[in-house]
Amino acid sequence: MTSSERPTDSLGPVAVIMPTYNERDNLELIVTRVRTAVPEVDILIVDDNSPDGTGEIADKLGASDTRVHVMHRPGKSGLGTAYIAGFGWALDNGYNVMVEMDADGSHDPQDLPKMLTALEDADLVIGSRYVPGGTVVNWPKSREALSRGANVYVRLMLGIGVHDATGGYRAYRAQTLRGIGLAEVDSQGYCFQIDLTLRTVSNGGRVTEVPITFTERARGKSKMSRAVILEALVRVARWGVAKRLGRGRAASKAGTGQAGTGQADTGQADTDKAAK
Prior knowledge:
Helix 8 runs parallel beside helix 9. This protein is α/β, with parallel strands linked by helices. The strands form 2 sheets. The protein has an 8-stranded mixed beta sheet, sandwiched between helices. Strands 6-9 form a two-stranded parallel sheet. The protein has 10 helices and 10 strands. The protein is globular and about 55 Å long. The chain has helices at 8-11, 27-37, 54-64, 79-92, 112-119, 141-158, 174-178, 189-202, 226-244, 272-275; strands at residues 14-20, 42-47, 68-72, 97-100, 124-128, 135-137, 170-173, 206-211, 213-215, 263-265. The two termini are 35 Å apart. Helices cover 39% and strands 17% of the residues.
């Protein structure tokens, strides 16, 4: 790729999907940063009827910029369903790439060009905190230890060579999402990201991790809860047991019905062996 080319030149239309709930203090800033970093992408804000007026701010942004779109949902229904709704909108509107990005500023839009470049040779690119070059900023040590431990647990239970399967900054090809059974996904939070990673690998997709800097939000409150963590622990254990019993993702309603040959491009072992 020459200096004058952009990663989207070969990938086609890109939609950045940004779920929001009470993000009025962050939304305008992050949208401006995305539009500056990668001007040619579109942004879909999926607002769950935020009581703080985030939806109204989103509408104003959309009215002033044709590349900003807004989806209003009737109430808070969870991160996973927000992304699935956004994926459906993007697929229906002909986008080739869908990007997950938090609205709180923890995901740096300056990392997006290198993630899109990596997608030229992958089916899913994860902005990873836990590969060489990846870092976290302003997180308590206890929170970082929980996140790192969760990802070790995922690798051990599921046998996939992804170092940041819980990471929420990622880019998918449209055909990847079409092939992994989105209609059957009902997981949320950490577990939603793990679920889609496992589905991609089980469906034969290639996963690449790109190092990013993750910065804890400066404004607003984290949406993390004990219930989200517990859901991830229970579901991953269930998927891991099903895999060891030879039923793979079929036992977890993955919709694939067979093992794939996916590979995690992290400099570690192939995940095709783990998926068999």
